[in-house]
Amino acid sequence: MNARDTAAPHPVVADLYGQMHLPVICSPMFIVSNPALVLAQCASGVMGAFPALNARPQSLLADWLAEVEAGLAAHRQAHPQARVAPYAVNQIIHQSNDRLEQDLAECARHRVPYIITSLRAPGDVVAGIHAWGGKVFHDVTTIRHAEKALEAGVDGLILVAAGAGGHAGTLSPFALLAEVRRFYDGPIVLSGAIANGAGVLAALAMGADFAYMGTRFIASREANASEGYKQALVQASANDILYTPFFTGIPGNYLKASIVNAGLDPANLPAPDASNFGTTRAKPWKDIWGAGQGVGSITGVQPAAEIVAQLRGEFDAAQARLAGRTFA
Ligand SMILES: Cc1cc2nc3c(=O)[nH]c(=O)nc-3n(C[C@H](O)[C@H](O)[C@H](O)COP(=O)(O)O)c2cc1C
Fold first, then answer.
1. Ligand 1 pocket by C-beta < 6 Å: which residues?
2. In this structure, which residue's CA is closest to atom 29 in ligand 1?
């Protein structure tokens, strides 16, 4: 039997479902995620998140946290019946992140409800986050990293499967999720090219508790992305995405169009050894646009609230479709 064959959700999941309109956690995206997007996401009933590093200089983080909290409080007051989801802040656990201690101290002051950690196992920071009542979801691409994160005491795992925007794994979501569920019955968030409501339902059917969605929300009015980037997402399909370690040293998915705009040939990038990373003046994330294979579901640039409403409609339609299929 799998670690989670019972119908009742894990208590952390049940608590979140009670505050959500749809089981979606919006991924934090470097440069792209900002307080306006996070507010719109949370107010629509899905969890919003931004990387702490997007608030520059560091002192701006306090303002961003205050802005999100004030916005959510005002929304709750104006709409007492609405489901308003909690927000998350992403912390990059890596020696290159020299702001980590300061950023965590700011999050402690604001008692940020969810911290999403990425890159290294968050061993040293989990206890501090728990001390202020925060929960830690850690993002992993392999079974070994999942095990290490659980040893570190995290409250949930984010499985970044093949096809996800930005730094992504290579494992099929079917394989990765099934293997993790064999030893873990806690909260699982699944990502990798989930870009419509049927995909959200599919993640739940597979045994995840939430879908993790990034790329879909870059094509929102609120996202901090250029109009060119947003329109390129509308135009693109899965075949227009390139998986390469060339730009950051870690394999990730990017829009081929932005690589061409930078004067490079996506089909002939130099070999991915460290000496090549500096050979282009194009800045990853700013000029080289991250995007997952789910881009084909993006047909326009919409306000985030409208995206969530559309996802909910698609989720309900997929559920109704399945209800009509019974097997003797
Ligand atoms: C443009 C872009 C920037 C990203 N930046 C971050 C980041 O700063 N921190 C992080 O943990 N993940 C980052 N991610 C990865 C996302 O957290 C997530 O794994 C991904 O968006 C999910 O796949 P999807 O885009 O196909 O929905 C980024 C993804 C994109 C597309």
1. 27-30, 32, 51, 90, 118, 139, 160, 164-166, 191-194, 212-215, 285, 290-292, 294
2. 166
> pTM for the whole thing?
0.96
What is the per-residue pLDDT across 242-258, written as a single tens digit (0 to 9) for each? 999 999 999 999 999 99
Per-residue pLDDT tens for 176-192? Answer: 999 999 999 999 999 99
Residue nearest to atom 8 of ligand 1 (CA): 30
| pLDDT tier, 1 (very low <50, low <70, confident <90, very high otherwise) | very low
Query: What DSSP letter does each residue of 255-309 carry, written as one string?
Result: EHHHHHHTT--GGGPPP-SGGGGGG--SPBTTTB-B--GGGGG--S-B-HHHHHH
Domain with CATH 3.20.20.70 in the chain: 16-225+299-321
What is the CATH number that goes with domain 16-225+299-321?
Answer: 3.20.20.70
